[in-house]
Amino acid sequence: MPEERIKGSCFCGAVELFVTGTPSAMGYCHCKDCAAWSATPINSYSFWRFDQLEITKGLENIKTFSQTDHSKRKFCKNCGGHVMTEHPSSNLVDIFAVILEGFSFKPSIHVNYESKSVSVKDGLPKFKDLPIEFNGSGEIIPE
Q1: Rounded to whole angstroms, what are the CA distances from 113 to 1, 41, 46, 48?
Q2: Residue 78 CB partners (closer than 8 Å, separation 6+)
């Protein structure tokens, strides 16, 4: 059985991509950088390996913004729509879950919950920063 292939695109459709298989992780980020970048208090992320990503249209339309070496935020130069964030140190790329057509988003954790601007009571673990496997403290904050 072939792996699932999911299409994503920016707001105007000038950039199109496909991800294949299953993401490495899915959850919600509450850090101030993601909040400022996405103009929302919580960012829904889906982490994929670089070899699971294929940009099929509009590579020339992708611009990059990097405030730190930890993330390279990618967006469409035409519409400004956010497409993905590369995390070079972890060899993962965060494809914004909302741009993936028909994607079954199943978050398992909240990260950077210490920085939250809104509280969420959903029964998922709330990490102060990041899990240990992502170089965080692994500390969980109660709901």
Answers
A1: 38, 11, 17, 22
A2: 10, 12, 14, 61
pLDDT tens, position by position, 65-95: 998 888 899 999 999 999 999 988 888 999 9
Supply φ then ψ for residue 51, to 5 degrees: -75, -5
What pTM, to 2 d.p., does this model score?
0.88
Domain 5-141 classified CATH 2.170.150.70? yes
Q: Are 32 and 42 in contact (CB under 8 A)?
A: no
Q: Rounded to the nearest 5°, which phi and psi values hold at 103?
A: -70, 135
The full set of domain ranges for the chain reads: 5-141
Q: What is the DSSP letter of 142?
A: P
Residue 16's CB: how many other CB atoms inside 10 A?
18
